[in-house]
């Protein structure tokens, strides 16, 4: 191997995001000269000098490692197939160094692509490329402030496909370049309107994830839906199945209808596209559904109505919500057109059937519970222990593998937990200057700071909280993290309240807010927390996945019986926080805060007084949750319950 060959090999490894879930490949790339946690490997490889490449060639072990990783990548990419399933989402969380996600929806989408690659599904992702991502969080003056980076797609390993698609918007057409990011076997297409052919306004359509006003959001969703379908077709991928990850990509239906409509028969065209259109909803409350005022919506529908010689009112009716005549409802659009719809936990399926019952379209909603990509979210050192003791099949959710957890003795289990906690302590020290007591029970809480998630529930009883934080015989350390949308003043106020308490004398340096929340810090936190705390207002947590990540790493859940936890808690694989039936929210918060403190008291007693029982509970959690919380299980469910039937329908 000479210098050009080594450089090409390293670029291949860096550009395919398989390294995000292959620890050995990640370690190799981050050992390169100039590598840093904040630099994408593609950027690092691009900057390697000829002298540095020559030095690397002189390291026989390094060259051998590159050869092994290239062989592994070639095996992953062997026998390529044309995608038959398009997974459409407004955000994708692949890694912290690919800032194209805001939170749980995007991270789930990234995990879905990775699990689809592992399973060798004929699937492609479709999204938007945001030149300024979501935002980087900083804490200034006691509250959240936002910094928007400028993102170069080439420096993220994105490939210019050479395809530019045109999307009709009111009074003009907008062009979008199609980038491709490889996630193992899965191609992810990202549309970018930052082209010279567009007006200055339209170049900014894909500037920020969830940025701008409703007009801006509608522009984005038209580009995502219509442009996404056209991008697939331009690459020769006439995917028969389109999976909408939330309603944001619902306008893909306009392009699909346009391909088959004849003589203005809209109803017949809808019946033709219905077999291959499937929809996953992620919200349990009306406020979480994307809606656009009818006066704003009509100009976007008029070009299609004119093209099909159909009344624009008929198109508008596809998004009609009987409870709100003034808005076009994206979930209603998706539900009316899809042949399959599902929520993301059993409880959420029940809630969704009730939520959409008033539209006359709720009965069809089933459920597939979310899962997390094990090789992405379990710390590498814990993966090594699992591979040794359980066999590599643990990451696929194999029950037989997880049944072998008794092979992990107490000493080894304690070492796992100590190492994960130490890594969290390093991150806390680097970002806050605080120290993490190695003897403390670490309680983690990290999620979007939406009011229903009740990040400040513990602060309702400052005396009991202070008692916990002052206890030197049973030390505890709370670590909170999370973001609020830049326009969510209530969420930002909650962050300010938590940050303020964390720096108060009452916190006793045992209650920390970890700033700069992203996938990297989330991975360290879910692994390092002994207890994962979740106290939303039931049943407003559609699924939640952070607790699943904690469970795989050996953290135990202490949660309201909501989302995924409502169906997987068995009385011994974690703790359930009692829910109140009070209609008055103040009384309900008071009762459930009391339950949280009572439960935490029991946990502290076991952790500090009976560590073998605590370890036994971890093993039981691994045995009962390991097979159920992985994205491998989730994608298997989607394959058998959604994709295979949809492909069969389209072929018939």
Task: Describe the structure in your own words.
The longest helix is centred in the C-terminal third of the chain and has 25 residues, at 585-609. Helix 6 packs across helix 26 (631-651), helix 9 crosses helix 10 (266-273) and helix 18 packs across helix 21 (519-528). The termini are far apart. The strands form four sheets. Strands 5-6-7-2-1-8-9-13-14 form a nine-stranded mixed β-sheet, with helices on both faces. The protein folds into three domains: 3-77, no CATH class; 85-127 and 213-370 and 636-651, Glycogen Phosphorylase B (Rossmann fold), CATH 3.40.50.2000; 376-629, Glycogen Phosphorylase B (Rossmann fold, 3-Layer(aba) Sandwich). The protein has 652 residues and is of the alpha/beta class. The chain contains 26 helices and 20 strands. The mean pLDDT is 97.
Q: Main β-sheet, in a few words?
A: 9 strands, mixed
CATH architecture designation of the largest domain: 3-Layer(aba) Sandwich
**Helical element count?**
26
The computed structural class is alpha/beta
Strand order of the largest sheet: 5-6-7-2-1-8-9-13-14
SSE topology sketch:
Layout: H1 3-15, H2 23-29, H3 41-46, H4 50-57, H5 60-77, E1 85-88, H6 104-119, E2 123-128, E3 136-140, E4 143-147, E5 159-169, E6 172-183, E7 186-192, H7 200-203, H8 214-234, E8 241-245, H9 252-260, H10 266-273, E9 277-280, E10 291-293, H11 294-308, H12 312-316, E11 320-321, E12 324-329, H13 330-337, E13 340-343, H14 346-355, E14 365-367, H15 374-377, H16 380-389, H17 399-402, H18 410-432, E15 441-446, H19 462-470, E16 476-481, H20 489-502, E17 511-513, H21 519-528, E18 531-534, H22 546-553, E19 556-560, H23 565-568, E20 574-577, H24 585-609, H25 611-625, H26 631-651
Helix pairs in contact: 1-5, 6-26, 8-9, 9-10, 18-21, 21-22
């Amino acid at each position: 191997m000479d210098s050009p060959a080594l450089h090409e090999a390293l670029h291949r490894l860096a550009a395919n995001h398989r390294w995000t879930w292959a620890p050995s490949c990640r370690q190799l790339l981050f050992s390169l000269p100039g590598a840093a946690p904040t630099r994408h490997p593609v950027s690092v490889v691009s900057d390697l000098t000829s002298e540095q490449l020559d030095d690397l060639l002189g390291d026989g072990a390094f060259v051998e490692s590159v050869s092994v990783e290239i062989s592994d990548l070639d095996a992953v990419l062997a026998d390529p197939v044309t995608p038959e399933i398009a997974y459409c989402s407004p955000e994708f969380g692949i890694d912290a160094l690919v800032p194209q996600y805001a939170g749980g929806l995007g991270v789930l989408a990234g995990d879905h692509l990775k699990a689809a690659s592992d399973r060798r599904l004929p699937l492609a992702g479709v999204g938007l490329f945001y030149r300024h991502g979501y935002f980087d969080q900083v804490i200034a003056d006691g509250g959240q402030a936002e910094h928007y980076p400028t993102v170069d797609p080439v420096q993220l390993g994105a490939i210019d496909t050479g395809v530019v698609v045109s999307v009709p918007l009111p009074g003009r057409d907008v062009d979008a370049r199609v980038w491709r990011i490889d996630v193992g076997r899965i191609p992810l297409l990202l549309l970018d309107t930052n082209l010279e052919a567009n007006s200055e306004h339209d170049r900014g359509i894909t500037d920020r994830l969830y940025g701008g006003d409703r007009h801006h959001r509608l522009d984005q969703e038209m580009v995502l839906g219509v442009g996404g379908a056209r991008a697939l077709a331009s690459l020769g991928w006439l995917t028969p199945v389109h999976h909408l990850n939330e309603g944001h990509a619902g306008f893909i239906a306009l392009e699909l209808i346009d391909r088959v409509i004849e003589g203005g028969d809209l109803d017949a065209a809808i019946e033709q596209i219905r077999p291959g259109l499937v929809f996953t909803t992620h919200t349990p409350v009306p406020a979480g559904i994307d809606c656009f005022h009818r006066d704003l919506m009509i100009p976007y529908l008029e070009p299609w109505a004119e093209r099909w010689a159909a009344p624009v009112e008929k198109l508008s009716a596809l998004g009609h919500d009987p409870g709100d005549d003034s808005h076009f409802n994206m979930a209603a659009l998706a539900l009316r057109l899809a042949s399959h719809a599902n929520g993301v936990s059993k409880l959420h399926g029940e809630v969704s059937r009730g939520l959409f019952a008033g539209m006359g379209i709720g009965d069809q909603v089933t459920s597939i519970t979310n899962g997390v990509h094990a090789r992405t979210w379990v710390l590498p050192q814990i993966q090594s222990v699992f591979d040794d003791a359980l066999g590599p099949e643990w990451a696929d959710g194999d029950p037989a593998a997880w049944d072998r957890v008794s092979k992990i003795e107490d000493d080894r289990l304690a070492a796992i937990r100590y190492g994960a906690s130490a890594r969290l302590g390093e991150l806390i020290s680097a970002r806050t200057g605080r120290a993490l007591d190695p003897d403390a029970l670490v309680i983690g809480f990290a999620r979007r700071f939406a009011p229903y998630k009740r990040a400040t529930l513990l602060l309702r009883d400052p005396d009991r909280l202070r008692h916990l934080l002052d206890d030197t015989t049973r030390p505890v350390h709370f670590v909170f993290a999370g973001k609020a949308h830049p326009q969510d003043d209530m969420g930002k106020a909650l962050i300010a309240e938590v940050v303020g308490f964390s720096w108060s004398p009452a916190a006793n340096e045992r209650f920390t807010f970890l700033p700069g929340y992203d996938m990297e810090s989330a991975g360290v936190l879910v692994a390092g927390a002994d207890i994962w705390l979740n106290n939303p207002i039931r049943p407003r947590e559609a699924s939640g996945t952070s607790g699943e990540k904690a469970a795989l790493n050996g953290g135990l859940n202490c949660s309201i019986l909501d989302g995924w936890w409502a169906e997987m808690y068995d009385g011994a694989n974690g703790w359930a926080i009692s829910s109140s039936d009070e209609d008055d929210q103040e009384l309900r918060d008071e009762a459930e805060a009391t339950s949280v403190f009572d439960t935490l008291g029991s946990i502290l007693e076991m952790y500090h007084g009976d560590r073998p029982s605590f370890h036994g509970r971890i093993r039981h959690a691994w045995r009962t949750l390991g097979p159920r919380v992985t994205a491998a299980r989730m994608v298997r469910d989607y394959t058998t319950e959604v994709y295979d039937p949809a492909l069969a329908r389209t072929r018939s």
